[in-house]
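Dear colleagues,

As part of the handover before I leave the project, I'm documenting each prediction I ran so the next person doesn't have to rerun anything. This entry is a single chain, and its sequence is reproduced below.
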Amino acid sequence: MEIKYFYTDLELFGAIFCFMAAVYLRMSKTAIRSQYDALKGLLAGIGAMLFFDAFAWFYRGSSGSFAYWAVVVTNFLSFLANAIVPVLFAQYATRSTSDTRENRRFLQIVTILSIIQIIILIVNLFTGYIYRIDPGTNLYSRGAGFGLVTSISIMNMLIGLEFLYLNRRSIDKLRMLALLCFNVLPMIAAGIQAFLYGYSLSNIACMGSGIFMFAQALDANNRTMLRQEIFIHKQNEELENMRTRIALTQLRPKFVREILDSVYLLCDIDIKRAQEIIVHLSKYLQQNIESISTEELISFDKELGHTLSYLELEKIRSGDSFDVELLTSVTDFMLPPLTVQPIVENALTHGIYKLPEGMRGRLVISTTAGNGYVKVEVVDNGVGFDMSGKRVAIVGGGAGGSDVAGDARKGGNSVNSAVSGGRTPGETDSDVGRTERKIVDSVDTSDGGGRRVRDFDNTAASARTAGDADYESEQIGISNVRNRLKIMEDAELIVKSKPGEGTTVDMIIPIKGDVI
């Protein structure tokens, strides 16, 4: 077999493999999409270089004008692809490590050198300074400036080696080996070709290195997806445990015992009233128990029913010391279970029940809708508390949550403003200024997404003010609701309070479709 047919078959095989690998990277599911996209471009560039060089080899030395022009065009396109490949490699290498100014400079330098190389190749079409094709024999021969193009290619490889050395600690070892092969092997081949004419050794080296990088990328993606699956599994286990803990905290043996004691006394006085209390207690406990196993959202009507059963029980315990007003014109939406009831419980325990003797408590539960959200608002006229320096406001799960407090201060389009039409009644700039700082969650795997709790201060004492003995206990219910809201994208919990004036808690719930 003639050497040209051997190279034709080998490079065609390499080109087809690289093209198929690029298509696979484009269509496959991956946890490292940015790196896959960069490698896809690099493999496509290598494939084009091999494809055109294969046809140049096939028609080399053949007679006829068609063969001549085929060699001229395919040689030029092969050299052109060879000049572009270093830029594609630089993109893949930079995406394999952190995005820094130095790394971007590496990409810029390689791009400038490649542009110079392309300009020289275009000039060569008219001068034959780099290479030329003899019209009589249709054979390729080097020109006086061939060493210039070779030196630019080697310079790109040396710059690549420097980049890899500087980033050696931030690149996976197996990927580092693959990237090194793509720099070292073609450079060795280019050095050999300077003395051994007639062999496309650098193209073969690029082909082998490209196959190695493709295999390494598949391995890296599999390992990343496996880590993500393990992470998700652990998160699901933690979510299940969290649900169980939240529900168990709601069972409250002391509370149940006091209600049963009241029922016992009523059995001899008012049997009908005792039966009503038993019904409310049954509904209350049933909802708590159901929340342990459910992973689904429930209707607001169901959550409100659970809350009202709880309020009936509390009225028995407190001697009917408060009034409840419902302004729930919007009810056709879903939310996590055990979200409204804990907020109402906080309002009673830490607000209304601390009012001076003789002052009657008032609790208002309302819902309003607008701009794709429903606001569930719980307002009490309890003692309130000073929010300065406290981590009270909570943001639910999901990306894209805005800083509602910050938006309100700036008069921007916060979610809270959208559903309420601006400030809450009677709210001033100073009131909004007391609105809590939000705790924004964020998650990061290698290239994927999710969210993780980030706190402003891990020292609990620094978040309290002197004399606020109930601050920590008050946050238990708020924290539970925050954890519940994490299962909803863009759900938020906002707390506003002033000493002596009461507390307002807003839950911003995203909705789908029309709300009645």
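The radius of gyration is 35 Å. Confidence is low (pLDDT under 50) at residues 391-473.

All the best with the project,
I.
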